[in-house]
Amino acid sequence: MKSKMNVPNTLSLIRALLVPVFVATLLFMREIPIWCCVVPTVVYILTGLTDMLDGKIARKYNLVTDFGKFIDPLADKFMVIGSAIAILVWMMLNGQVTLALVFVWVVLIILLRELGVTSLRLVVAGKSGIVVAASMLGKIKTVSQMAGTVIILMEPIIPYFCENHILSYVSMGIMAFTTLFSGWDYLKAYMPHLNTNE
Predict the structure, then answer these.
(1) Cβ atoms 151, 167 nearer than 8 A
(2) CA separation for the pair 172, 176 (Å, rounded)
(3) Cα separation of 66 and 172, whole Å?
(4) Residue 60 has what pLDDT?
(5) Nearest 10 degrees: Cα torsion 178, 137, 87, 19
(6) pLDDT at residue number 59
(7) CA of 51: how far to CAs of 13, 56, 140, 197, in Å?
(8) Class for the domain spanning 7-193
(9) What DSSP character marks residue 30?
(10) Contact 115/55 with Cβ under 8 angstroms?
(11) pLDDT averaged per 10 residues in sequence order, the chain, 198 residues
(12) Helix or strand or coil: residue 94?
């Protein structure tokens, strides 16, 4: 008889399932005043909370499984990439062309960083079994992306800032910087274990 899915894996699966819910609420509720910002933000925060909790619970109670190693990073990628693309589309639909043109570069940086770091991890771990632990810069990157996303989502209902988008531009700058810097940090950590002649 198969055992039930443990709590960390359940949280990871919930995170993956919440991503399309976030996209749907963001895009289909965009013409409903106030709620068009509040509901997607609440869904996004709940998604982020599962990301914070699953790893801590798994490590604390020794609930690390092969399925968890698969679903956790997959759910993370769904959350990061899915939300970034959805917000870009949301900006375009709302007529915020200039904001979207800036944000598209942030999305590109996020995509390249995620693909680059994931590829390095797979190659190095596959050849030598070495796994570089998440660095403090990586955690700062995650926090900046989550906080920045919340600010971007809520800014349309914040007086004054809803017109000039200052908070969004500052948040995007911080997101881009921390994403690039953490990506460079991982590159330095993995490159010594990667033989360019093989």
Answers:
(1) yes
(2) 6
(3) 35
(4) 84
(5) 170
(6) 81
(7) 10, 9, 14, 37
(8) mainly alpha
(9) T
(10) no
(11) 76 94 95 93 95 86 81 88 94 94 96 86 69 74 93 94 93 96 86 68
(12) coil
Predicted pLDDT at 130: 64
* Residue 45 structure tokens: 């925060």
Amino acid in position 17: L
> Quick one: tokens of 189?
């950590």
Instruction: Give the chain's length.
Output: 198
Dig out the tokens for 151 from the structure: 């600010």
Q: Would you kindly state where each structural domain of the chain is located, as residue ranges?
A: 7-193
Give SS3 for 4: coil
Contact yes or no for 118/186 (Cβ under 8 A)? no
| Helix locations, the chain, DSSP H | 7-28, 35-60, 66-93, 97-128, 136-154, 161-164, 166-190
